Amino acid sequence: MATTLVRPRTTTAPAPRAHKAPALRNLGPNWYACVMGTAIVANAGATLPLQLPGRLVACRLVWALSAAALAVLLTARAGHWLHHRDQARAHLLDPAVAPFYGCLAMALLAVGGGTLIVGKDVIGTPAAVAADAALYTAGTAIGLLMAVLIPYLMVVRHQIEPAQATPVWLLPLVSPMVSAALGPLLIPHLPAGQAREAMLLACYALFGVSLLATLLMLPLVFGRLIVSGPLPLALTPTLFLVLGPLGQSTTAVNQLADMAPRSIGAPYADAFGAFAVVYGVPVMGFALLWLALAAAMLVRAARGGMGFAMTWWALTFPVGTCVTGATGLAHHTGLAAFSWLARALFLILLGTWLLAAGHTLRGLFAGRLPPR
């Protein structure tokens, strides 16, 4: 009897694919929050009702830093999409990461607005207007796209449970409000007549898009907190994101009220001026209530051992929008109380920015930066 020796076939596992620019693989869209948080320090500081030696010079330096950070990040993110397209698509399909794509639009808008607020003294008004117009157009278009795309993906592609609701879901919905707040800066540089009126009313339309979408989303976020309890420690700073639509909408109605007399007839211009106060004061009141609640939850998380995460940048931009909102109310009401509120909020903004920026830089140099 003959026996045949059958040798087992050995298969060699394919070598893992080598990716180009491996340092960029985990670079997510949440990094744009650093640009937003830096730009708002310059924008809010420049418009603050406070006379302080060197204030505008410091704001110009911070704006330049935000513009440089935006340029570096746009280049890095382009490399991410070029060399790690699979990871980029995975980010869009991840319900925890996809909403951060709204930060791209807000970063473009914030730096563009800063270019016209403080950058014009550095590069000249014509160049500042051109730069802001380009960044505003790109930021608004991307913001509107993400305001549709991300909710669409959440409905048809993401597998989401009610307990997963977080304030991060607001990010793609807030960017049109940033457009509404910064669009008025361009109105004086448009031809008088139809162009200015169209821009004014377009900004009010963007205000409505973001406000109504936010009102749909906020109950889900607050309901999750009531039913499921506090957020995970690393996500606790995102509670401050709720301040974004509140402060930014207050800023928007005040900025638009300033431009209304130059853009539209007297009955509507007067109505828009009144609306800025009638809307802004109650919303600012609710913003202060939420600020107290979010701060209390943040203290609780810190006592529970919360470490640094990139979510700490959520403590910057939303607070900055409340600074600009309070500044606008101080201008339209003439109340010193709003001026003092803007100054107090700016101190909070400056402190949180120094904290987030310091930890981020230390993590970058040490190579131990958390991905989110």
Oligomer: single chain
Strand content: under 5%
Tell me the series of helices and strands, N- to C-terminal.
HHHHHHHHHHH
Count of strand segments: 0
Low-confidence stretches: 1-11
The general outline is globular
Rg, alpha carbons: 23 Å
Task: Give the integer mean of the pLDDT values.
Answer: 92
Secondary-structure content class: mainly alpha
Share in helix: over 70%
Query: Main sheet?
Result: none
State the end-to-end distance. Answer: 67 Å
Enumerate how many helices there are, as a single number.
11
At a glance:
The chain is mostly helical.
Description:
The radius of gyration is 23 Å and the shape is globular. The N terminus is likely disordered. Helices cover 70% and strands 0% of the residues. With 372 residues, the chain is mainly α. The longest helix has 38 residues. It has eleven helices and no strands. Helix 1 packs parallel to helix 10 and helix 9 packs antiparallel against helix 10.
Fold topology:
Blueprint (H helix, E strand, L loop, with lengths): L31 H16 L7 H29 L1 H8 L9 H22 L1 H32 L14 H12 L11 H35 L14 H21 L2 H38 L13 H17 L2 H31 L6
